[in-house]
Amino acid sequence: MPDLVSTHHPLSEQEQLLLSVLLDTLIPASKDGTMPSAADMDFKYYLSTQAADFVADLTWMLGKLDPEFPDLLLSERCKQLTEFSANEPQAFQNLLSRVYDCYYQDNRVRNEIGVVTGAVFPQGNQIIAGDLALLDPVIKNASRHGYRKT
Amino acid sequence: MADDVVDVLIIGAGASGAAVAWSLVDTRMRIVCLEQGDWMNPADYPSNAANWESQSFGPYNIDPNVRGLDTDYPINDSESDVTVVNFNGVGGSTILYAAHFPRLHPSDFKVKSLDGVADDWPIDYDTLEPYFAQNYRVMGVSGLSGDPLYPPKQLPLPPLPLGLVGETVARGFNALGWHWWPSDSAIISQPYEGRDKCLNLGPCMSGCAQGAKSSTDITYWPDAIRRGVELRTRCRVREITLNDDGFADGVFYYNADGEECFQRAEVVVMACNGVGTPRILLNSTSNRFPNGLANSSGLVGKNLMFHTVGTVQGLFEERLDSHKGPQGCCILSKEFYETDLERDFVRGYSMQINRGAGPLKTAMTGYIDGTISWGPDHHDAFRQRFDHVASIGIIGEDLPEQNNTVTLDPVLTDSDGVPAPKITYSYSENSRKLMAHGLARAEEAMRAAGAVEIISDGPKPIAGYHLLGTARMGDDPESSVVNHWGRSHDVRNLFIVDGSIFVTASAVNPTSTIQALALYIADTMKKNLANLFD
Fold it and tell me: Domain segments of chain B: what residues?
């Protein structure tokens, strides 16, 4: 529970600014406005509840970014991250997996992509039973498909 | 404890240990099962949470080396083309399995006679048929009778929904005139035996919080325990001991506190899978068996078989709702199951249709294979793929070879200091040719089904789901470890009931057959109680 009410942020103000721009670079809002930016996610809450082990790596990665990163054009930011991903592929993949993990748990996002939001029980998912008449050709060819005699 | 003798001691509470305990309890003998893992709490399974996908990559990972629980044992697979995946706990690997539940075919028991390769089993499909049926009833299996590739069989429950994924790929198979059929699935499609039906949540392979997936902790075990079997968890067996007459007389194990304990037994039954069983046997040395218990043939730990696994993903323009429904249970094709002399390999493979991934896996897989970028184009690429993918899994028959082995690692140990298994395994030329054929045919099926883009991958490295062959059954003590009813040739009160007794691997998921074997062996033991050790 302390995590839910704490005002403490594991990152400095400068790091928080860098993170926000980093998140918006990795997943910006969609052009049609239906999908939010990753910067709109509560990444602090995600870090404190699900990814505390990632804070040190994240801090290290933010320290690798150009201090001017927030002021760069999007194309320049993408270029820098592409270079970072080439130089530090494992670290970048880890970063991306955490960002995606946080992003695709968000109810606005899940609702938009058609994934159940909130409790999955008791309703679950509905899928079509399917047309078993599609088996007719298999049944008609039963003699060809028949099991191998031993 | 030293004077406390149980009638039957079972090692392992997974697929086969549960079945053999459930059957043997009819005898009213005193039966104890030792399991190194814990009971699972379904409320803890990731499918209860929005972050189920990331949990399945971490604490519920199918790879014990990644999971790293102290109830697991590490596995050295540095010299193996394939990574072993398993789970240790009540239910064993049925906790995390896909529950795809086909049986071996009649021909699978006769590959030497039919195709001139490997060896025939000492039993046949008809021997196991009553036990397949019994197992289907106890586990709760959904499917459709009438598959022409099998002798007649009855399914207790109607098939799981095909969904748009199943229908779409089925149309592709039909266009090519190929066989397909709804999968036999150990997932209940209707309420059954106090359990509620599948809700199509998707994450079967990180545990089923609904209880619709038939893992043995919720099928066999509750009934076996109610009828008198004692199941002790957090008990890790180190070795089986032998008395002066050459009979197994007990086991040393470590309890939850890491204390060494000894349990005496009249009969020992091993149910630890194709890696865990040879591990314990090889660690049970004596003057009589310096190279491991029951190993006069030298075959304990040899002939390790997995299945050769590959995947072909098809991207479709229409939405398939593919993240919904049981991941691994939909339809399957056996069009290329048997040997065809016109091909450049022997035996064959099945095609298991899998549904799509959740959003996190979709996004990360897309990043890794270059199809979904991060940045401004992320949303468009993600929308094109998420819920638009169907997948065909190729499961190829892996033939027994003595150079594919489980041995004891000289350095690596588990948390109790018991030597870890070391896997030495390489794909054969036959397996690689088989996989190339399978990938090409699956691509053909995807194109026929209307896929606009196809990605193939195989043979895959993280694919050691099925652990088979390391203590094979047979009639000749020089070429097998146990006889035709699972009894050690060397130690007449030692039985093995898990996948290690498979003679050949077939090209289907083995759990259904492993459990039928366990029930058959238990039944044979019951019929021979008066002369069990003769």
Answer: 5-356+388-531
